[in-house]
Amino acid sequence: MTHTLDHDDVRDGAPAGAGAREARDPERPGVRLRAERLSLAYGDRTVVHELDLEIQDGTVTAVIGPNGCGKSTLLRSFGRLMKPLSGRVLLDGEPVHTLPTRRVAERVGLLPQSPVAPEGLSVADLVARGRHPHQTWYRRWSSDDEEAVARALRSTGTYELAERTLDELSGGQRQRAWIAMALAQETEILLLDEPTNHLDLAHQVEVLDLVRELHRDTGRTVVLVLHDLSLAARYADHLVAMKEGRIVAQGPPVEVLTEELLAEAFGLRALVRYDEEIGAPLVVPLSRERALA
Amino acid sequence: MIEALSAPPAKRAKRQIASNRTRRLWGGLAALLALLALTLLLSLALGANPLTPTQVWHGLWTPTGEDGDIIVRRLRVPRTVLALVAGVALGVAGALMQGHTRNPIADPVVLGISAGAGMCVVGSIFVLGVTSLYGYIWFGFLGAAVASALVYLVGTLARGGATPVTLALAGAATHALFTALAAGMVIMDRAAMDTYRFWTVGAVNGRPLELTTQMVPFILVGLLLAAVNAPGLNALSLGEDVARTLGVNLGTTRAVGMVAITLLTGTAVAVCGPIGFVGLVATHIARHFTGPDYRWILAYAGLLGGALVLAADTLGRLVARPGELEVGIMLALIGGPVFIYLVRRRKPVRL
């Protein structure tokens, strides 16, 4: 049936990036992104302290932590949006801040928190703008671009919405359109900063399902910052828990997400139960009153 | 999701819609060219002494020294060409300014560029005793360049670099500074006062054709840079973070934009005086038809800017016959209601 055909189509749409594959980190094979004694600061306020982190190729990593723990800042520095105070971020072994913007843009896509589009922009136009790194002043729009946009629209289920403007969409649809924009960039690494922000639970699941699908179908390496702990545990292969600019625990969700960690990192009393049906730990926060009693 | 995966029919439909829209946009461009041609013809024909199209044609191509020929060649052609060139320049510059500042009321006046040009015109008369039109126009251009450089530098000083807000604030401050300096000099010097009063209205008449010819290379470079800037502006309109992750070099993109804005407005304002509202009105009309794609907005805004200045100048000759109203005044009369429209819209314009 056409479904299978189109699914293959999506599979073929795995980011090409042949050049990037050769340029892998010689010191750490299998690691795409790596922070080395990385410190990040806004002005004189240091938010990330001498942090070391490795992002394995082809995994979904979720960064969790309380507000202000530096998780979004860390993600921004991975996307070359922040200069390190000290230390460095290595992309395939090269310091990301010495690479030209465009070279990074060919390999890493980043969707910031709550992005804003100009009024009247259609979904198709938004997604087409994801092709910017592949265009030059003499080569504006090609059939490659056309196909990449169609693939991104289809794999995010926004094909039918292509001609609608973003203002007309629901929060979940809009977020899928933005993800499609990042996908059209066809980078092997995708950084998503709280992609479920301001979405209701059904739409959060919708967006995370999409992320999981993309990972399964194209083998993309995904790093996301998430607030919901149970969802993070369920959708990520690897959890990184941060507190006050440092990593307090990392590893498979089952190992990381414990009652002790939640108490330490979040100051939260909660029950953590492994759910067989879901295959991931579930977090049930306890109210202060219960906790005290 | 599943319906979305069975794509072929939908794909065709989408291509169809996309190509319909492109066709519509090209059609609009053709219509604008026709409008521009019409305003050009009217500008040549109408005035204190209305001429027939035949007389205009005769004056343009086979002049024999008749009254009509002299009116066409001495009066109408120079101001028409200047109105066209300045209008296109100001229209494109307006779109660039709105895009870079992401401010829907950005304009050479608001950003302080006109004030910079005005101050230098006055300064050249007051301090250096420049008397020729050619002389102080170069100073006007210099002033516009200094003002836009100042706006950009002050705007960039803020932590996090130039943002729409810091650029708008820097523009307001620059405007206040240069206006105050100009006012101070004008009060002390009668000659500067007379020139400034004339210059500050904004007009396209009384400028020799050679002056416009000298402008053209600057304008052409400005237009070229604007075209190069369009994809960067499209990416920037998604926010600076998204633009950077799409591989846009913010510094270069902003610098190219500022140079283009300076060339386009600096030249136009130096020759014509501070003609406000053109960029503002042209860009808003353009965006209404094109949507938020700067490749189209810039083209539409340029043609609309040209048509607008031509029409306003022609109208100014007709409303107060036998005298005339300067184009700057006419455009302010047209621009006012546009501001009111922007204020009264239900949703604020978001760029």
UniProtKB/TrEMBL annotation, chain A:
It comes from the Bacteria. Signal peptide: none annotated. GO terms for biological process: iron ion transport. Pfam families: ABC_tran (PF00005). It is found in: Cell membrane. It is a peripheral membrane protein. Residues 1-12 have a biased composition (Basic and acidic residues). One of its GO terms (molecular function) is ATP binding. One of its GO terms (cellular component) is plasma membrane. Residues 33-269 form the ABC transporter domain. PROSITE patterns: ABC_TRANSPORTER_1, ABC_TRANSPORTER_2. Residues 1-28 are annotated as: Disordered. Keywords: ATP-binding, Cell membrane, Ion transport, Iron, Iron transport, Membrane, Nucleotide-binding, Transport. This is ABC transporter ATP-binding protein. It comes from Streptomyces alkaliterrae.
